[in-house]
Design brief:
Strands 1-7-6-2-3 form a five-stranded parallel beta sheet. Helix 5 crosses helix 7. By secondary structure, it is an alpha/beta fold. The chain has helices at 3-15, 39-44, 66-70, 86-97, 103-117, 132-138, 142-154, 177-184, 212-223, 239-242; strands at 77-83, 124-127, 157-158, 163-165, 188-190, 200-208, 228-236. The termini are far apart. It folds into two domains: 1-44, no CATH class; 45-242, Rossmann fold (3-Layer(aba) Sandwich), CATH 3.40.50.2020. Bound molecules: zinc ion (ZN) (2 copies). One zinc ion (ZN) binds next to helix 2.
């Protein structure tokens, strides 16, 4: 490299220093760190240790999944990275409520790793759509940001635009689990349903709560002839937390 090129690079770095702080706690990171997370935050992420092979929620070793006992899911399998707790909750909060959209880079990478570690593969990717009024208000759909981030590695065909949300239905946050499933059933529709025939599809969202939303989308995809439907989220709400009536409505759809 010529002297002036080196000098130019150094000047660029001086005036436009690369972002080398942890995306979660803002502490300084080693310049070479490309994962955007410090060791302390990584050690505090509540990674799901023993996931249910169907819904992905963490279950006690040797016991059956209470969530799957009480519900019928239309997807083949759901995978999540972390329990919706502690700094994982804070990360979602940043991504969703504070427009810290760069968080998707960090979370999408972990989602990709979780999908590969679960020995799954797909040919198509979609994200949970957001109603256009809500998207206008927030300015972006965080599920779409997560899709873009993990699809940098997965490299699947993105057919998200063929799934749309019907006119505004009641906000899910005010509903109990049974009602959530009832409302979600008619909430989404496909345009160009033939595109999904014989496809293996992964649905992307930020948080898996009861699974009502993703199961409803999986149902219409299966009806359109999809071969397999998987769900991939960053976080999953533990069943006992989800049952608490005071569960963070703030974050739920
Ligand atoms: Zn940190
Ligand atoms: Zn389960």
């Amino acid at each position: 490299m010529k002297f002036f090129d080196v000098l130019k690079d150094e000047l660029v770095e001086f005036f436009f220093p690369p972002n080398v702080s942890c995306y979660i706690c803002d502490d300084d990171l080693d310049k070479k760190c490309k994962t955007h997370i410090c060791d302390k935050c990584k050690s505090e992420l509540p990674f799901i240790q023993n996931p249910c092979k169907k819904c992905g929620k963490g279950v006690e070793l040797g016991s059956s999944c209470q969530s799957c006992i009480s519900r019928k899911y239309y997807f083949d399998r759901a995978v999540a990275v972390v329990d919706f707790d502690g700094i994982a909750k804070f990360s979602i909060y940043k991504l969703k409520m504070h427009s810290h959209r760069y968080m998707a880079d960090l979370m999408g990478y972990y989602m990709y790793c979780a999908f590969i570690n679960a020995n799954l593969s797909a040919d198509t990717i979609v994200c949970v759509p957001m109603h256009k009024n809500k998207q206008r208000k927030r300015g972006y759909n965080q599920a779409r940001d997560l899709l873009k981030s993990c699809n940098k590695y997965l490299k699947l065909e993105d057919l998200s635009k063929f799934i749309v949300q019907n006119e505004l239905s009641p906000a899910q946050k005010d509903l109990n689990a049974r009602d959530r499933f009832a409302v979600a059933k008619d909430k989404y529709k496909l345009i160009g349903a033939t595109k999904f025939r014989d496809r293996t599809i992964v649905i992307i969202d930020d948080v898996f709560t009861t699974g009502a939303t993703t199961s409803a989308i999986a149902q219409i995809l299966k009806y359109a002839g999809a071969k397999k439907v998987y769900v991939l989220t960053f976080a999953s709400v533990p069943y006992d937390v989800e049952k608490q009536s005071a569960f963070d409505e703030f974050f739920a759809y």
